[in-house]
Design a protein that fits this description.
This protein is an alpha+beta fold and 90 residues long. The protein has two helices and four strands. 30% of the residues lie in helices and 33% in strands. A hairpin with a 5-residue loop joins strand 2 and strand 3.
Length: 90
């Protein structure tokens, strides 16, 4: 990926996490592209808990972000049925 664009980020509710390989697979399917990347950074929630902030990077081209967001929300809900998450656009 020449110039990845940060498209979305999210956190999972306490105690939940997702591995890089699984997240990359879900994100690639949501974007319908192999030209994607993911990152995970440890962060505090503000409530005395630590967790991770996940960032999702995609192709720097015209994309239907509404459709991608819907597919990613569905994929995360299916993969992590007991977790709560907030998926936000950058």
């Amino acid at each position: 990926m020449a110039h990845p664009a940060a498209l979305f980020h999210f956190r999972l509710s306490g105690g939940h996490s997702i591995g890089r390989t699984q997240l990359l697979k879900l994100w690639s399917a949501a974007c319908r592209s192999g030209d994607v990347a993911v990152s995970r950074v440890e962060s505090a929630s503000g409530f005395g808990q630590t967790g991770h902030t996940y960032s999702l990077f995609g192709p720097n081209k015209s994309l239907n972000l509404v459709d991608i967001e819907t597919r990613m929300r569905d994929a995360l809900t299916f993969a992590l049925p007991k977790a709560t998450f907030v998926l936000s656009r950058y």
